[in-house]
Amino acid sequence: MFLQGKSAIVTGSTSGIGLAYAKALATEGANVLINGFGDADAIEQARAELETASGARALYDPADMTRPDQIAAMVAHAEAEFGGVEIAISNAGIQHVAPVEEFPVEKWDAIIAINLSSTFHLMRAVVPGMKRRGWGRILTTASAHSLVASPNKSAYVAAKHGIAGLTKTLALEVAQHGITVNCISPGYVWTPLVENQIPDTMQARGLTREQVMNDVLLAAQPTKQFVTPEQVAALALFLCRDEAAAVTGANYSMDGGWTAA
Description:
Its EC number is 1.1.1.30. The protein is α/β, with parallel strands linked by helices. The chain is built from 9 helices and 7 strands; from the N terminus they run E-H-E-H-E-H-E-H-E-H-E-H-H-H-H-E. Helix 1 packs parallel to helix 2 (40-54), helix 1 crosses helix 9 and helix 4 runs parallel beside helix 5 (154-173).
């Protein structure tokens, strides 16, 4: 349990990739603060399971990722309860699909706020404490769309490209403070959010489940296999190790070969 005595914040972590991050960190002994929306009972169950796994503490904070003041308060909450924050993973994100001329302005604003600006506000809040301790790990979840584009996803692609650039910038700023800053860019990850899209797509396009998975969702992934949340979390754990101290400013593709083409 190489993270005993260390504490982490993971945004957007009440399900999917974010919850996988939190579970992986807890399994290695870290205190973890999770964040996000969802059913209160399910969130409490997840929080309690994290404490059981870690033998340490797990907290939940409902901070709204569109509110910089709430993000700062979330970090202050974690620092007060844990005594500091050594690991911060920015993972919160939403999606909307529409051509540019039909893209609702409020959707653009929300995606940029949650997918990009919240990462800046999280970084801004955790860096001072990491500098004082001389050790930190900051990770961002981008996407294959941090490297390539798809039509009708203007806000999402812009935000994920921005995440990649922001990650590199902060990595340079804190390079001499024992802090690494890296980005993970998954392709399609098998989460409840993705699975729940399949029936609607089957009906809308008149396709079978297998056709939706292989010809729609996995069309760009040469392996024709979904990435799993646990695979993404395993890479995050490696980047938190002391052995990864020389790895910073990197953008790791985990997309079944999508961006190799």
